[in-house]
Amino acid sequence: MPEGLRWGILGTGNIARQFAAGMAASRRGKLEAVGSRNAAAATSFARTLHVPQSFGGYSDVLKSDSVDVIYVALPNSMHREWTLAALRAGKHVLCEKPIASDASEAEEMFDAAGRAGKVLIEAFMYRAHPLTLAVIEAVRAGAIGELKLIRTSFCYRTRKIEGNIRFNRELAGGGLMDVGCYCINFSRLLAGSEPSRVEVAGHVHETGVDDLAVGTLSFPNGVVASFTCGMAVQADNTAYLCGSDGYVEIPVPWKPPKENAEFTIARSAPPRMDSVGAAAPPAPPREKRVVNAGADLYAVEADDVAATILDGHPARITRQDSIGNMHVLDTMRRQLKIL
Question: How confident is the model at residue 269, as a pLDDT?
Fold first, then answer.
Protein backbone atom coordinates (compact mmCIF):
# COMPACT_ATOMS: atom_id res chain seq x y z
CA MET A 1 0.00 0.00 0.00
CA PRO A 2 1.33 3.50 -0.77
CA GLU A 3 2.41 5.90 2.00
CA GLY A 4 -0.86 7.76 1.54
CA LEU A 5 -4.39 6.41 1.11
CA ARG A 6 -6.27 6.50 -2.17
CA TRP A 7 -9.93 7.27 -1.52
CA GLY A 8 -13.12 6.40 -3.35
CA ILE A 9 -16.43 8.05 -2.46
CA LEU A 10 -19.87 6.48 -2.73
CA GLY A 11 -22.46 9.23 -3.12
CA THR A 12 -22.43 12.81 -4.37
CA GLY A 13 -24.60 14.56 -1.77
CA ASN A 14 -23.73 17.51 0.45
CA ILE A 15 -21.63 15.59 2.98
CA ALA A 16 -19.68 13.90 0.17
CA ARG A 17 -18.92 17.32 -1.30
CA GLN A 18 -17.73 18.67 2.05
CA PHE A 19 -15.47 15.66 2.54
CA ALA A 20 -14.07 15.88 -0.99
CA ALA A 21 -13.36 19.61 -0.67
CA GLY A 22 -11.63 19.11 2.68
CA MET A 23 -9.53 16.23 1.35
CA ALA A 24 -7.57 18.70 -0.75
CA ALA A 25 -5.64 19.57 2.44
CA SER A 26 -5.00 15.97 3.49
CA ARG A 27 -1.34 15.11 4.06
CA ARG A 28 -1.86 11.36 3.65
CA GLY A 29 -4.77 10.95 1.32
CA LYS A 30 -5.88 11.62 -2.22
CA LEU A 31 -9.25 11.29 -3.90
CA GLU A 32 -9.18 8.85 -6.80
CA ALA A 33 -12.79 7.97 -7.61
CA VAL A 34 -16.43 8.85 -7.02
CA GLY A 35 -19.54 6.85 -7.80
CA SER A 36 -23.22 7.73 -8.10
CA ARG A 37 -26.29 5.99 -9.43
CA ASN A 38 -26.49 9.00 -11.74
CA ALA A 39 -23.49 9.05 -14.08
CA ALA A 40 -23.96 12.74 -14.86
CA ALA A 41 -23.91 13.60 -11.15
CA ALA A 42 -20.69 11.64 -10.69
CA THR A 43 -19.09 13.36 -13.69
CA SER A 44 -20.07 16.81 -12.44
CA PHE A 45 -18.83 16.01 -8.93
CA ALA A 46 -15.50 14.76 -10.27
CA ARG A 47 -15.02 17.78 -12.53
CA THR A 48 -15.85 20.29 -9.79
CA LEU A 49 -13.79 18.64 -7.06
CA HIS A 50 -10.90 17.38 -9.20
CA VAL A 51 -11.48 13.65 -8.77
CA PRO A 52 -9.67 11.61 -11.46
CA GLN A 53 -12.32 8.90 -11.96
CA SER A 54 -16.12 8.98 -11.92
CA PHE A 55 -18.53 6.08 -12.28
CA GLY A 56 -22.25 5.74 -12.87
CA GLY A 57 -22.53 3.08 -10.18
CA TYR A 58 -21.15 2.27 -6.76
CA SER A 59 -19.78 -1.17 -7.64
CA ASP A 60 -17.35 0.25 -10.18
CA VAL A 61 -15.64 2.28 -7.46
CA LEU A 62 -15.19 -0.88 -5.40
CA LYS A 63 -13.61 -2.67 -8.37
CA SER A 64 -11.00 0.04 -8.92
CA ASP A 65 -7.41 -1.06 -8.22
CA SER A 66 -6.51 2.57 -7.54
CA VAL A 67 -8.71 2.79 -4.42
CA ASP A 68 -7.63 1.65 -0.94
CA VAL A 69 -10.43 3.01 1.25
CA ILE A 70 -14.09 3.79 0.64
CA TYR A 71 -15.99 6.69 2.16
CA VAL A 72 -19.66 5.69 2.35
CA ALA A 73 -21.68 8.91 2.10
CA LEU A 74 -25.06 7.35 1.33
CA PRO A 75 -28.43 7.44 3.15
CA ASN A 76 -28.42 5.65 6.52
CA SER A 77 -30.40 2.68 5.23
CA MET A 78 -27.68 1.96 2.64
CA HIS A 79 -24.70 2.00 4.99
CA ARG A 80 -24.83 -1.72 5.77
CA GLU A 81 -25.19 -2.89 2.16
CA TRP A 82 -22.34 -0.84 0.73
CA THR A 83 -20.01 -1.18 3.68
CA LEU A 84 -20.31 -4.97 3.40
CA ALA A 85 -19.75 -4.74 -0.37
CA ALA A 86 -16.66 -2.57 0.10
CA LEU A 87 -15.21 -4.96 2.67
CA ARG A 88 -15.80 -7.91 0.35
CA ALA A 89 -13.92 -5.97 -2.33
CA GLY A 90 -10.92 -5.70 -0.02
CA LYS A 91 -11.33 -2.03 0.87
CA HIS A 92 -11.12 -0.27 4.21
CA VAL A 93 -14.23 1.80 5.03
CA LEU A 94 -15.01 5.15 6.60
CA CYS A 95 -18.80 5.11 6.96
CA GLU A 96 -20.88 8.18 7.64
CA LYS A 97 -22.67 8.44 10.95
CA PRO A 98 -24.82 6.86 12.19
CA ILE A 99 -22.94 3.79 11.07
CA ALA A 100 -26.08 1.73 10.45
CA SER A 101 -29.86 1.67 10.73
CA ASP A 102 -29.66 -0.17 14.07
CA ALA A 103 -27.21 -1.89 16.40
CA SER A 104 -27.63 -5.36 14.89
CA GLU A 105 -26.56 -4.02 11.48
CA ALA A 106 -23.56 -2.32 13.07
CA GLU A 107 -22.47 -5.58 14.70
CA GLU A 108 -22.76 -7.39 11.36
CA MET A 109 -20.64 -4.73 9.67
CA PHE A 110 -17.86 -4.88 12.26
CA ASP A 111 -17.91 -8.67 12.21
CA ALA A 112 -17.39 -8.52 8.44
CA ALA A 113 -14.52 -6.04 8.83
CA GLY A 114 -12.85 -8.38 11.30
CA ARG A 115 -13.14 -11.34 8.97
CA ALA A 116 -11.78 -9.29 6.06
CA GLY A 117 -8.90 -7.91 8.10
CA LYS A 118 -9.94 -4.37 7.17
CA VAL A 119 -10.54 -1.19 9.13
CA LEU A 120 -14.09 0.12 9.58
CA ILE A 121 -14.53 3.52 11.25
CA GLU A 122 -17.63 5.63 11.81
CA ALA A 123 -17.27 9.17 10.46
CA PHE A 124 -17.75 11.39 13.51
CA MET A 125 -15.31 13.93 12.11
CA TYR A 126 -15.34 16.19 15.21
CA ARG A 127 -13.66 13.42 17.22
CA ALA A 128 -10.31 13.87 15.45
CA HIS A 129 -10.22 17.66 15.71
CA PRO A 130 -7.62 19.07 18.15
CA LEU A 131 -10.38 21.09 19.84
CA THR A 132 -12.14 17.93 20.99
CA LEU A 133 -8.86 16.41 22.13
CA ALA A 134 -7.98 19.57 24.10
CA VAL A 135 -11.36 19.62 25.83
CA ILE A 136 -11.00 15.97 26.85
CA GLU A 137 -7.51 16.64 28.20
CA ALA A 138 -8.67 19.67 30.20
CA VAL A 139 -11.58 17.82 31.80
CA ARG A 140 -9.51 14.75 32.64
CA ALA A 141 -6.80 16.97 34.12
CA GLY A 142 -9.33 18.31 36.61
CA ALA A 143 -9.85 21.79 35.15
CA ILE A 144 -13.50 21.80 36.29
CA GLY A 145 -13.24 19.40 39.22
CA GLU A 146 -15.49 16.37 39.07
CA LEU A 147 -17.62 16.19 35.93
CA LYS A 148 -21.31 16.15 36.89
CA LEU A 149 -23.42 17.34 33.99
CA ILE A 150 -23.19 17.39 30.18
CA ARG A 151 -25.49 19.61 28.11
CA THR A 152 -25.48 19.61 24.31
CA SER A 153 -27.57 20.90 21.45
CA PHE A 154 -27.64 20.20 17.72
CA CYS A 155 -30.64 21.61 15.90
CA TYR A 156 -31.58 23.23 12.63
CA ARG A 157 -34.76 24.18 10.86
CA THR A 158 -35.31 23.04 7.30
CA ARG A 159 -38.29 23.85 5.13
CA LYS A 160 -37.30 21.27 2.52
CA ILE A 161 -39.35 18.22 3.44
CA GLU A 162 -40.32 16.64 0.12
CA GLY A 163 -37.53 14.46 -1.21
CA ASN A 164 -35.42 15.02 1.92
CA ILE A 165 -33.87 11.72 3.01
CA ARG A 166 -33.87 12.91 6.62
CA PHE A 167 -37.67 12.87 6.59
CA ASN A 168 -37.88 9.38 5.08
CA ARG A 169 -38.53 6.64 7.64
CA GLU A 170 -37.62 3.87 5.19
CA LEU A 171 -34.18 5.45 4.78
CA ALA A 172 -33.67 5.51 8.59
CA GLY A 173 -34.07 9.26 8.75
CA GLY A 174 -34.97 11.49 11.68
CA GLY A 175 -33.34 14.10 13.87
CA LEU A 176 -31.87 11.60 16.32
CA MET A 177 -30.12 9.74 13.52
CA ASP A 178 -29.00 12.90 11.72
CA VAL A 179 -27.75 15.14 14.52
CA GLY A 180 -28.78 13.68 17.88
CA CYS A 181 -26.20 10.96 17.33
CA TYR A 182 -23.49 13.62 17.81
CA CYS A 183 -24.86 14.64 21.20
CA ILE A 184 -25.11 11.02 22.32
CA ASN A 185 -21.60 10.24 21.08
CA PHE A 186 -20.13 13.29 22.82
CA SER A 187 -21.91 12.54 26.10
CA ARG A 188 -20.78 8.92 26.17
CA LEU A 189 -17.22 9.97 25.28
CA LEU A 190 -16.92 12.46 28.14
CA ALA A 191 -18.81 10.36 30.67
CA GLY A 192 -16.47 7.50 29.86
CA SER A 193 -19.03 4.70 29.95
CA GLU A 194 -22.33 3.48 28.60
CA PRO A 195 -25.50 4.98 30.10
CA SER A 196 -27.45 2.95 32.63
CA ARG A 197 -30.67 4.82 31.88
CA VAL A 198 -31.90 6.38 28.63
CA GLU A 199 -35.01 8.52 28.21
CA VAL A 200 -36.37 10.69 25.42
CA ALA A 201 -39.35 12.88 24.63
CA GLY A 202 -40.03 14.33 21.24
CA HIS A 203 -42.27 15.15 18.33
CA VAL A 204 -42.89 12.81 15.41
CA HIS A 205 -43.41 14.41 12.02
CA GLU A 206 -46.25 13.26 9.76
CA THR A 207 -43.64 11.43 7.66
CA GLY A 208 -43.00 9.10 10.61
CA VAL A 209 -39.60 10.37 11.76
CA ASP A 210 -38.69 12.47 14.79
CA ASP A 211 -38.17 16.13 13.96
CA LEU A 212 -37.55 17.19 17.58
CA ALA A 213 -36.15 15.21 20.51
CA VAL A 214 -35.00 15.93 24.03
CA GLY A 215 -32.99 13.17 25.65
CA THR A 216 -31.34 12.35 28.95
CA LEU A 217 -28.61 9.83 29.72
CA SER A 218 -27.71 8.69 33.23
CA PHE A 219 -24.31 7.07 33.73
CA PRO A 220 -23.13 4.64 36.43
CA ASN A 221 -20.54 7.16 37.71
CA GLY A 222 -23.26 9.71 38.49
CA VAL A 223 -22.79 11.89 35.40
CA VAL A 224 -26.06 13.04 33.83
CA ALA A 225 -26.30 14.25 30.23
CA SER A 226 -29.11 16.10 28.48
CA PHE A 227 -29.44 17.09 24.87
CA THR A 228 -31.80 18.65 22.37
CA CYS A 229 -31.82 17.86 18.67
CA GLY A 230 -34.16 18.53 15.82
CA MET A 231 -34.80 19.41 12.21
CA ALA A 232 -37.62 21.88 12.83
CA VAL A 233 -36.17 24.18 15.47
CA GLN A 234 -33.32 26.64 15.90
CA ALA A 235 -30.92 26.49 18.86
CA ASP A 236 -27.43 27.53 19.89
CA ASN A 237 -25.78 24.17 19.02
CA THR A 238 -23.25 24.38 21.84
CA ALA A 239 -21.84 21.94 24.38
CA TYR A 240 -21.29 22.45 28.11
CA LEU A 241 -19.41 20.26 30.56
CA CYS A 242 -20.33 21.20 34.11
CA GLY A 243 -18.21 20.15 37.06
CA SER A 244 -17.91 20.66 40.79
CA ASP A 245 -15.35 23.47 40.38
CA GLY A 246 -16.25 25.04 37.04
CA TYR A 247 -17.57 24.39 33.57
CA VAL A 248 -16.38 24.16 29.96
CA GLU A 249 -18.24 26.07 27.28
CA ILE A 250 -17.74 24.98 23.64
CA PRO A 251 -19.43 27.36 21.18
CA VAL A 252 -18.78 25.26 18.04
CA PRO A 253 -18.33 21.62 19.07
CA TRP A 254 -19.60 19.74 16.00
CA LYS A 255 -17.80 21.43 13.10
CA PRO A 256 -14.83 23.26 14.61
CA PRO A 257 -13.02 25.67 12.28
CA LYS A 258 -9.54 25.19 10.88
CA GLU A 259 -8.16 28.11 12.87
CA ASN A 260 -9.12 29.70 16.19
CA ALA A 261 -11.40 26.96 17.44
CA GLU A 262 -12.08 27.83 21.04
CA PHE A 263 -13.46 26.69 24.34
CA THR A 264 -13.74 28.50 27.67
CA ILE A 265 -13.14 27.29 31.20
CA ALA A 266 -15.33 29.31 33.54
CA ARG A 267 -16.42 29.36 37.15
CA SER A 268 -19.63 30.66 38.63
CA ALA A 269 -19.72 33.08 41.54
CA PRO A 270 -20.27 31.25 44.85
CA PRO A 271 -23.86 31.46 46.07
CA ARG A 272 -24.59 34.16 48.66
CA MET A 273 -25.41 31.47 51.22
CA ASP A 274 -21.74 30.42 51.17
CA SER A 275 -20.63 33.88 52.33
CA VAL A 276 -21.06 34.49 56.02
CA GLY A 277 -21.88 38.12 56.70
CA ALA A 278 -20.55 39.38 53.40
CA ALA A 279 -21.56 39.67 49.79
CA ALA A 280 -20.59 36.81 47.52
CA PRO A 281 -17.39 37.52 45.61
CA PRO A 282 -17.54 38.07 41.86
CA ALA A 283 -17.10 35.19 39.48
CA PRO A 284 -13.44 34.38 38.70
CA PRO A 285 -12.12 35.32 35.27
CA ARG A 286 -13.03 33.22 32.24
CA GLU A 287 -10.11 31.42 30.62
CA LYS A 288 -10.42 31.13 26.86
CA ARG A 289 -8.30 28.50 25.12
CA VAL A 290 -7.74 28.60 21.36
CA VAL A 291 -6.88 25.58 19.23
CA ASN A 292 -5.61 25.55 15.63
CA ALA A 293 -6.07 22.40 13.58
CA GLY A 294 -3.87 23.49 10.69
CA ALA A 295 -6.16 21.82 8.15
CA ASP A 296 -9.80 21.43 7.16
CA LEU A 297 -11.90 19.30 9.51
CA TYR A 298 -12.38 16.55 6.91
CA ALA A 299 -8.68 16.48 6.06
CA VAL A 300 -7.94 16.00 9.77
CA GLU A 301 -10.43 13.14 9.81
CA ALA A 302 -8.94 11.51 6.70
CA ASP A 303 -5.41 11.73 8.10
CA ASP A 304 -6.61 10.26 11.39
CA VAL A 305 -8.03 7.30 9.45
CA ALA A 306 -4.69 6.99 7.64
CA ALA A 307 -2.89 6.77 10.98
CA THR A 308 -5.06 3.79 11.90
CA ILE A 309 -4.76 2.00 8.55
CA LEU A 310 -1.11 2.77 7.73
CA ASP A 311 0.47 3.11 11.17
CA GLY A 312 -1.68 0.82 13.28
CA HIS A 313 -2.86 3.56 15.63
CA PRO A 314 -6.02 2.70 17.61
CA ALA A 315 -9.17 3.82 15.82
CA ARG A 316 -10.57 7.07 17.17
CA ILE A 317 -14.08 5.60 17.12
CA THR A 318 -13.98 1.93 18.02
CA ARG A 319 -16.37 -0.93 17.34
CA GLN A 320 -17.60 -0.74 20.93
CA ASP A 321 -18.12 3.01 20.66
CA SER A 322 -20.13 2.82 17.43
CA ILE A 323 -22.31 -0.08 18.57
CA GLY A 324 -22.87 1.58 21.94
CA ASN A 325 -24.08 4.73 20.20
CA MET A 326 -26.46 2.69 18.06
CA HIS A 327 -27.89 0.96 21.14
CA VAL A 328 -28.80 4.36 22.63
CA LEU A 329 -30.32 5.50 19.33
CA ASP A 330 -32.30 2.25 19.09
CA THR A 331 -33.65 2.69 22.63
CA MET A 332 -34.71 6.27 22.03
CA ARG A 333 -36.32 5.52 18.68
CA ARG A 334 -38.26 2.66 20.24
CA GLN A 335 -39.47 4.98 22.99
CA LEU A 336 -40.74 7.35 20.31
CA LYS A 337 -42.27 4.38 18.44
CA ILE A 338 -40.37 5.13 15.23
CA LEU A 339 -38.27 1.96 15.16
Answer: 81
